[in-house]
Amino acid sequence: MRRRKVKERIILPDPRFNEVVVTKFVNNLMLKGKKNTAFKIFYDAMDIIEDKTSESGLESWKTAVKNITPAVEVRSRRVGGATFQIPQQVRDSRKESLAMKWMIGFARKRNDKTMAQRLANEIMAGAKEEGGAFKKKEDTHRMAEANKAFSHFRF
């Protein structure tokens, strides 16, 4: 057990949209400390979305993150020699983090030419409630529903 709660770090908003959640997303997108490259990829993806659709890139990104955000997840718990998958509510900070990580992970697995195009396509798919990250959310919810009988083992 921890002695005390972790001190939360202050994250500065991004320069273009002045949003803290965009910076959190870019921090997840970043590889090997290359934050400027990650910002360029994100902003290029926003421009691609604005070109392909008539709506704002930031708004469709926010819609996609909201659609991908899970409400429940399953956690493993060992009870009497057997391991059970126990459904639990997800903390707000973890919800946001999971949605961002899933979106970035499935964007990296896509087969488009550049990372900006992959990310843009994954964001547009998430906004329309389709794509890999949305499927992951649905699978997580389905698994939690299937294991609802074990919810009395919750800690």
Structural descriptors:
Ribosomal Protein S7, two-stranded antiparallel ribbon, 155 residues, 6 helices
Account of the protein in words:
- It contains six helices and two strands.
- Strands 1-2 form a two-stranded antiparallel sheet.
- It has a domain of 96 residues: Ribosomal protein S7/S5 (Ribosomal Protein S7, Orthogonal Bundle).
- It has 155 residues and is mainly alpha-helical.
- The two termini are 14 Å apart.
Residue share in helix? 55-70%
CATH fold-type name of the domain at 20-69 and 91-136:
Ribosomal Protein S7
DSSP summary: helix tally? 6
Mean pLDDT, to the nearest integer, reads 91
What would CATH call the class of the domain at 20-69 and 91-136?
Mainly Alpha
Residue fraction in strands: 5-15%
Q: Could you spell the SSE succession in H and E letters?
A: HHHEEHHH
Low-confidence sequence ranges: none
Overall radius of gyration: 18 Å
Give the strand order of the largest sheet, numbering strands 1, 2, ... along the chain: 1-2
What is the overall shape? globular
Please identify the structural class as seen in this structure.
mainly alpha
* Distance between the ends: 14 Å
Total strand count, please? Answer: 2
Q: How does the major sheet shape up?
A: 2 strands, antiparallel
